[in-house]
Amino acid sequence: MNGRAKVIAINNSWQLVPWADILYACDFAWWERYRGVPEFEGLKLSVDASACRRPWGIQKVGLNKHDDGLELMKLGTVGWAGNSGFHCLNLAVQMWPAKIILVGFDMRVDLGLHWHGPHKGLNNPSQRNVERWRRCMDAVAGAIREFGIEVINASPTSALKNYPKMGLMEAMEC
After folding, report:
1. CA–CA distance from 69 to each of 33, 53, 90 (Å)?
2. In this structure, how many other beta carbons lie within 10 angstroms of the beta carbon of residue 172?
3. In sequence order, which residues have a C-beta less than 8 Å from that of residue 112 and are 6 or more positions away?
4. 165: helix, coil or strand?
5. Is 119 exposed, middle or buried (0-12, 13-18, 19+ CB in 10 A)?
6. 3-state SS class at 21
7. How far, in Å, CA of 4 to CA of 142, rounded?
8. Is 10 helix (H, G, I), strand (E, B) or coil?
9. How far apart are CA 60 and CA 28, in angstroms?
10. What is the pLDDT, as a whole number, of residue 1?
11. How far apart are CA 110 and CA 62, in angstroms?
12. Cα–Cα 20 to 30 A to 166, which of 38, 128, 153, 157?
C-alpha cells in the first residue's frame, strides 16, 4: 500500500477527480452515453453486463438484486439498494478500510438532482428513489460500524442520518 486514500468516482463525478482509482456506474445508458469514458485511466466497474461486454474496458461487479443490504460473503458482489452510491459503499466496505468518507451523498432532490444538473436523455432520481436510497444507506450504518470501519459523511446537504457529518478537510485529517 502506498498510504494514499483510494478514491471511487461515481458517474460524472470522475470529472471532478479524474485521477480517481475507480470509476463506477451501474447504468448501461450512462456508459453508452459517455462511450465508456475512454479518457478515464483507472479501473472501470459496473454491475451492467451489457456495459461490460462493450470494448470499453469495464469490469463486471456481481449484484445481489434480491437484497438491499450489504453483500459481504461474495467479494466483488454488491447488494442492490437501487443506486450506485450504495454499490460503491458496499465495495469500499469489502476493502476493509479504517475509514470511508462519503462525498456527494446528498440523497435528496429538493436542492437539485446532481452537482452537474439533470442527466440529459438518461434517468434522473425521483423523490421516491432517494427515499429508498436513504433508507438503505442508513440501514447499514450500524453493521459497518460493527466491522470497525468509520464512515464519515462529508456531504454538507446530505439527508443521511446515521453517519457523523463533518467537512471534507476535517474528515481527511481525523
Report:
1. 29, 27, 9
2. 13
3. none
4. strand
5. middle
6. coil
7. 26
8. strand
9. 12
10. 37
11. 32
12. 128
Strands 62-64 and 58-60: what pairing? unpaired
CB proximity list for 120: less than 8 A, separation 6 or greater: none
**How far out from the chain centre does Cα 30 lie?**
14
**pLDDT truncated to tens, each residue of the chain (174 aa)?**
356 789 999 999 999 999 999 999 999 999 999 999 999 999 999 999 999 999 999 999 999 999 999 999 999 999 999 999 999 999 999 999 999 999 999 998 887 666 666 777 777 778 898 999 999 999 999 999 999 999 999 999 999 999 999 999 999 987
DSSP string, 38-62: TT--SEEEES-HHHHHSTT-EEE-E
